[in-house]
Design a protein that fits this description.
alpha/beta; 6-stranded mixed β-sheet; 6-stranded parallel β-sheet; 10 helices; 24% strand; binds NADPH dihydro-nicotinamide-adenine-dinucleotide phosphate; Shikm_DH/Glu-tRNA_Rdtase; Aminoacid_DH-like_N_sf; NADP binding; NADP
Length: 274
């Protein structure tokens, strides 16, 4: 009888000790009866590719990739999904049977699935996205695929938002600019800036939200972010990014194991642990 070999997965980051991915994937594996080991690995800042090769040599089959390695992961892949190519970043690595490395990004589909699960309608919606960094670039293609009426990107550095809008202009009605040009009447406002990390609020006008609007912060924590408090006080429904985190993990898990876990149960446990 051949010895039982457990497939190995991990999340690469630096720092990575805070990552919730090992907990999430252990829960997915238990639920779906998959025998996997999933750990957090702090890759050296100057040798991400080496850390991936070493992991593969030790039986690694796939990995999640988080800050600051998403662009480096993109560069080391042999083949890449079209959505990851658009995003210019990879958060999911998969070792093919041929030994080649395949890369994808599941952040955007994670956001769209979480919004759908929470009953937020994207088709025909007027959407405002705040920020123009890596996280925002990664969610634009899946958001535009839902055919919103319009999608405007506002960023502290206006030119970055305008450039992003140009890069995605072939996919839908998308515009970009600075915070001072933001008008109002949005059905969904997604905060993809890292302002919440430092408890800051981008400068936004009072009439930002339409009736029955949703405010979504990609950040999450035990307490609502400054942005969600501000939005809630103006009548919008506040949602944080915990669901996005779990849904992107579920899509990675599906790519590795071919099974879709029950995200709601894992989300509830995670929420209690915050
Ligand atoms: P980046 O560093 O690539 O981009 C940061 C963005 O935030 C830029 O647009 C920057 O503007 C803007 N910004 C930073 N500080 C401020 C401020 N004080 N006021 C206004 N704007 C500000 O970061 P990421 O795109 O990788 O991440 C953004 C957020 O998304 C983080 O909070 C991260 O935790 C979250 N995230 C959540 C995920 C989830 O699964 N829930 C997944 C991925 C990310 P400028 O261009 O002018 O510098």
């Amino acid at each position: 009888m051949s010895p039982h070999v457990t497939d190995r997965y991990c999340v690469f980051g630096n720092p990575v000790a805070h990552s919730k991915s090992p907990f999430i994937h252990a829960a997915f594996a238990a639920q779906t009866d998959e025998q996997i080991e999933y750990t957090a690995i702090a890759a050296p800042l100057d040798n991400f590719a080496g850390a991936w090769r070493e992991f593969v040599a030790q039986g690694g089959r796939g990995a999640n990739v988080t800050i600051p390695f998403k662009e480096e992961a993109f560069r080391l892949c042999d083949t890449i999904s079209s959505r990851a190519r658009r995003a210019g970043a990879v958060n999911t690595l998969l070792l093919g049977k041929n030994g080649l490395t395949y890369g994808d990004t599941t952040d955007g589909i994670g956001l769209v699935r979480d919004l759908a699960r929470q009953g937020v309608k994207l088709t025909g919606a007027r959407i405002l996205v705040l920020g123009a960094g890596g996280a925002v670039r990664g969610v634009l293609e899946p958001l535009l695929a839902e055919t919103p009426a319009s999608l405007h990107i506002a960023n502290r550095t206006a030119e970055k938002a305008a450039r992003l809008a140009r890069d995605f202009a072939d996919l839908g009605a998308i515009t970009g600019g600075g915070f001072k040009d933001v008008t109002g009447g949005f059905d969904l406002v997604i905060n993809g800036t890292s302002a919440s990390l430092s408890g800051e609020l981008p400068p936004l006008p009072d009439g930002l939200f339409a009736t029955d609007a949703t405010a979504y912060d990609m950040m999450y924590g035990a307490e609502p972010t400054v942005f969600l408090c501000w939005a809630g006080a103006r009548g919008a429904r506040p949602l944080d990014g915990l669901g996005m985190l779990v849904e992107q993990a579920a899509e990675s898990f599906f790519q590795w194991r071919g099974k879709r876990p029950d995200t709601a149960a894992v989300m509830a446990t995670l929420r209690e642990s915050l």
